[in-house]
Amino acid sequence: MNQHKLKMKLLKGSFGICRLDSNSSIPNWIDYEKFLSITKTDDELSIVCSEDGIPNNIKCEKNWNVIKVEGPLDFSLIGILSSISTILSKENISIFAISTYDTDYILVKNKDLQKSIDALNKQGYEFV
Predict the structure, then answer these.
(1) Are strands 7-10 and 126-127 parallel, antiparallel or unpaired?
(2) Domains in the chain, start-ordered, CATH in brackets?
(3) What percent of the chain has pLDDT over 90?
(4) What is the mean pLDDT of the chain?
């Protein structure tokens, strides 16, 4: 990636990463008003959504924050996720990454949020 550092934005709320069976339908408890990502594979239906409405019987990791890389990002850009994940891995911060057509989202656990922001700021990433 070139030396130009990108702007980041922290999305409001706390999120969960859920795993359902691959033959499951998209559930009706999802809050469509907030950040949402749905991925279906032959192995699973993975949903990232606001943790507020997630039922207790759903296999889920809660207490995640979402950091948005301000986009849109051109497909020719190289190493964005690599750069960010390297910075955070050096701080022993686990991430869950989601890419969309326009940009990337990095999820970090609530307990690691301030440490993540500090590490990214130190490397020139700006939070808006």
Answers:
(1) parallel
(2) 7-127 (3.30.2130.10)
(3) 87
(4) 94
